[in-house]
Design a protein that fits this description.
alpha/beta, Quinone Oxidoreductase, Chain A, domain 1, 2 domains, six-stranded parallel β-sheet, five-stranded antiparallel β-sheet, disordered C terminus
């Protein structure tokens, strides 16, 4: 037997998330496998903002929390995945997983060389693909354009800003602490970074993007913050709606307001997305991100901001 520990959703999310929403459980997994089956042990798990929206993220009360993980095969009767194989799968917050249909349940890890496997869940995982597809496919940035990113120091926002810089854009980021803003400018190469708790959005954009000159806005937060940014958009500006973090703890859906006249006058394109719409071309994003990481990670002649960095706040989940 293999002992599996898992965090289950004990109580549906409503308002602020607390420890009462989760429960640690154990289950035994038989190691007497049928042909084609295997057992994988988690190496890395993901904790992402999208999980907050509950059933839409696959989280059902009584079930283990959903999400991706990188795992190592520890018992196998599958010739394609011998013991020691590294795989990626949507197994959620659990230490061990019985895989009965490898073709549908798991993917082999990309060849990472000496890069950390955790990148498969970060810059090459859901956050990375959200940044890659959500920004490039919707905003379609052009060299010399001005890009605003909210939640810029988060997992997705920080990657959007770096991709925008690689595309030759001027990048303006907003984050919640001075330390995060310093990181955005010094390490990631953002042209401007503002602490939205200290500097009003209108004031910041009048300085960084005067005369309503924002071409692209990648929105992670929603709320009144986004309403203000929309008032600084250029004619034919593009807005990619990735998240609404400012509303995730609300117990009722926001109803507005939105600056509809400015949206009409500036002929803005505003598009929301769920990243899985691009799942059929997922490999395109993975390869592009891996190539950028490998090409820009080394060498004294490569500016620090050009070395693709993936850094985010980590939530520790105790499975010991």
């Amino acid at each position: 037997m293999v002992l599996c520990k898992k965090w289950v959703l004990a109580k549906a999310f409503h308002g602020k998330v607390t420890a009462e929403n989760f429960r640690l459980e154990e289950e035994d997994i038989s190691d007497k496998l049928k042909d084609g089956e295997l057992i994988a042990e988690a190496v890395y798990l993901t904790v992402d903002p999208y999980m907050r929206v509950g059933s839409e993220a696959g989280n059902v009360v009584g079930n283990a929390m959903g999400g991706e993980q990188i795992a190592k095969v520890i018992v196998s009767k599958n010739k394609q995945y011998p013991v020691g194989s590294i795989v990626r799968m949507r197994a959620g917050w659990r230490t061990h997983t019985l895989v009965t249909d490898a073709e549908k349940q798991i993917q082999r890890s990309a060849e990472m060389g000496d890069l950390p496997l955790s990148l498969m869940l970060g810059a090459m995982g859901m956050p990375g693909m959200t940044a890659y597809f959500g920004f490039l496919k919707i905003c379609e940035p052009k060299e010399g354009e001005t890009v605003v990113v909210s939640g810029a120091a988060g997992a997705v926002g920080s990657l959007v800003g770096q991709i925008a810089k690689l595309k030759g854009c001027k990048v303006i980021g907003f984050a919640g602490t001075d330390e995060k803003c310093d990181w955005l400018k010094k390490d990631l190469g953002f042209d401007f970074a503002y602490n939205y708790k200290k500097v009003d959005v209108d004031t910041a954009l009048k300085e960084a993007a005067p005369n309503a000159s924002v071409d692209c806005y990648f929105d992670n937060v929603g709320g009144m913050f986004t309403v203000k940014v929309l008032n600084h958009m250029k004619l034919f500006g593009r807005v990619s709606i990735c998240g609404s973090i400012s509303n995730y703890n609300d117990t009722s859906l926001p109803t507005g307001p939105l600056p509809f006249f400015n949206i009409l006058k500036s002929q803005l394109k505003i598009e929301g997305f769920i990243v899985l719409r691009w799942y059929a071309i997922w490999e395109e994003g993975e390869k592009a991100m891996l190539q950028w990481i490998k090409e820009l990670r080394a060498g004294p002649d490569v500016p620090k901001w050009k070395k693709i960095t993936y850094c985010y706040e980590i939530v520790f989940i105790c499975l010991a």
